[in-house]
Amino acid sequence: MKKFKEIKPEELEFNPFRLIGKDWMLITAGTEEKFNTMTASWGSVGILWNKPAVTIYVRPTRYTYEFVEKYDEFTISFFSEEYRSALNFCGSKSGRDYDKALETGLTPVALGSSVGFEQSHLALLCKKMYFQDMDSTNFLDQGAEKFYPTKDYHRIYTGEILKVFTE
Ligand SMILES: Cc1cc2nc3c(=O)[nH]c(=O)nc-3n(C[C@H](O)[C@H](O)[C@H](O)COP(=O)(O)O)c2cc1C
């Protein structure tokens, strides 16, 4: 089994525009035995309440939402280009219909009390500290509403970064 190295958040070389926006990430919650994962390309990394933090956006229609809701911790995982097809699969199919680990060959690995994947080059273990549902009456960007033809506004979760695992 792969041995991840643990580093401090301050040691991270993390370009969110490339890693989240271009490379994409997997948001995963649950246990090694029962979890779900999905691709995401929206998110932020920063500080909240003096803690290193990650913010993710999950629509309530996602199967992953049920897992992020149920479990205190979640992970975000990053992969090299060779896993693009796996991320495309996890971003277009639902865990309600497919075993995503089986279909993609990604190998789940316990990270804290949550789960990540052996193939990732970077994984952040996060503990939920805040959530809020997007309120469209607060949209100040004219273009925002077009992302919600069925009004399934994202739930915003901010998690404290508990651990950072690198190769
Ligand atoms: C590149 C990419 C980025 C995505 N980003 C998000 C996101 O930030 N939030 C979200 O709710 N869904 C996002 N999705 C859609 C989910 O990954 C997709 O609906 C997935 O099939 C949900 O799987 P699930 O039902 O197993 O949770 C994205 C999909 C792709 C391909």
Explain what this protein looks like in three dimensions.
There is one protein chain. The chain is an alpha+beta fold. It has a single domain (5-166), classed as Electron Transport, Fmn-binding Protein, Chain A (Pnp Oxidase, Chain A, Roll), CATH 2.30.110.10. The chain is 17% helix and 40% strand. It is built from four helices and ten strands. Strands 1, 2, 3, 4, 5, 6, 9 and 10 form an eight-stranded antiparallel sheet that branches. It has a two-stranded antiparallel ribbon with strand order 7-8. A hairpin with a 4-residue loop joins strand 2 and strand 3 (35-40). The model has no long low-confidence stretch (mean pLDDT 97). Flavin mononucleotide binds next to strand 3, strand 5 and helix 2.
Largest sheet: 8 strands, antiparallel
Order of helices and strands: EHEEEEHEHHEEEE
The helical percent reads 10-25%
Task: Give the low-pLDDT segments.
Answer: none
The CATH topology comes to Pnp Oxidase, Chain A
Named at the architecture level, the CATH assignment is Roll
Cα shape: globular
Bound molecules: flavin mononucleotide
Number of strands: 10
Number of domains: 1
Question: SS-based structural class?
Answer: alpha+beta
**Gyration radius, to the nearest Å?**
15 Å
Summed up, the helix count is: 4
Strand content: 35-45%
Q: Report the average pLDDT across residues.
A: 97
- CATH homologous superfamily descriptor: Electron Transport, Fmn-binding Protein, Chain A
What would CATH call the class?
Answer: Mainly Beta
Head-to-tail CA distance between termini: 12 Å
